[in-house]
Design a protein that fits this description.
Elements lengths: L8 E6 L5 E6 L5 H4 L9 H11 L7 E5 L4 E5 L6 H7 L4 H18 L16 H16 L8 H19 L4 E3 L8 E5 L5 E5 L6 E3 L3 H7 L8 H14 L4 H33 L8 H14 L4 H13 L1
Antiparallel strand pairs: 1-2, 2-4, 3-4, 5-8, 6-7
Helix pairs in contact: 4-8, 5-6, 5-9, 6-9, 6-11, 7-9, 8-9, 9-10
């Protein structure tokens, strides 16, 4: 089965009774294994899956696990990622994205209190991680393409990167899926034919800002949305959580700041995946992803540090 950007491999297994399941193979030296180095801990995929299932999130069932051999057998949810489903039934886009926003708000409420010792509580979008991700853009989208910043420009970039990292790290934190987008949501049709969304690829869940998964969903590098569509979904999110009009305005500002941080990281990551992993599939999304960061920067021009960053990107790109 086609996988994503990680080194994990997936196989559909056909059983004699006509049913199917999915085998997930994790190579021994991959990041997924490295993240489980805490003594005696189950794979984060398993730990987070159980937490989500307990709190009412639709996730695949685990049928068997042989973690020492890098292998899981999981429920087969089919091939209908949200991205795939929309290519066949584009008329369902608004309804499904409304459901995705509603599900996210419900999950955030259900996960407001996390169990002691949860791996989610032990990982966070802190200043160091956020800053590393922005620097990923400089290293892989700029330097790897021969764009070396002059000292004055490097100072502008570093100032903006630090500003983004410290600002976002200073906000309250809650559960974050980390990659809540159209390739990690599976469309499941109920008995009545109505679609439901199941979550996958949640093993990197951590603590982070409330808007992070909204940014992943609504600035998805693999989808194109109008600004009106995004604003409507942000309104729905605020309504689902009962936020005031002032909080709704803050949500919009937070959304734009995280969009700049996340989309710059994504653009650099897509180049890294090509250069480091030999997978060029994501290169087609580099420039559209930068475009989403630039659009957010345009809405943040009252911030002089980010206005400088926008002018710098104008010059070097």
């Amino acid at each position: 089965m086609k996988g994503g950007a990680s080194t994990r491999r997936f196989f559909r297994v056909h059983l004699e009774d006509g049913s199917t399941l999915v085998a997930m193979f994790v190579p021994g030296k991959s990041q997924e294994i490295a993240k489980t180095s805490e003594e005696g801990r189950r794979w984060p995929f398993l730990e987070v899956r159980d937490l989500l299932a307990e709190r009412g999130v639709l996730v695949p069932r685990i049928l068997a696990e042989a973690c020492d051999d890098g292998l899981l057998l999981v429920e087969d949810l089919g091939d209908d990622t949200l991205a795939n489903y929309l290519t066949r039934r584009p008329e369902t886009r608004e309804a499904l994205y409304r459901a995705a926003v509603r599900d996210l708000a419900a999950a955030q409420r259900a996960l407001a209190e996390l169990p002691a010792g949860s791996i989610v509580r032990e990982r966070a979008f802190d200043r160091d991680l956020l800053r590393w991700e922005v620097d990923h853009f400089r290293e892989w989208r700029l330097s790897a393409h021969g764009i070396e910043l002059a000292p004055a420009d490097r100072e502008v970039f570093d100032r903006a990167a630090e500003h983004l990292a410290t600002t976002i790290a200073g906000w309250p934190r809650g559960f974050v899926h980390r990659d809540y987008q159209s390739r990690n949501l599976m469309v499941q049709e109920g008995a009545d034919g109505s679609p439901h969304l199941a979550w996958i690829d949640f093993q990197d869940a951590m603590l982070g800002p409330r808007v992070y998964d909204l940014v992943a969903l609504l600035t998805d590098s693999y989808q194109v949305f109008t600004r009106e569509f995004i604003e409507a979904r942000l309104d729905e999110y605020a309504a689902a959580l009962g936020l005031s009009s002032a909080e709704r305005q803050r949500i919009g500002r937070e959304f734009d700041l995280v969009t700049v941080q996340r989309k710059l990281k994504d653009a650099g990551r897509f180049v890294f995946i090509d250069r480091h992993n030999g997978n060029p599939d994501f290169l087609q999304f580099v420039e559209p992803t930068i475009g989403k960061a630039r659009a957010a920067l345009a809405r943040l021009h009252d911030d002089p540090i980010l206005a400088e960053l926008d002018a710098l990107l104008d010059r070097v790109l």
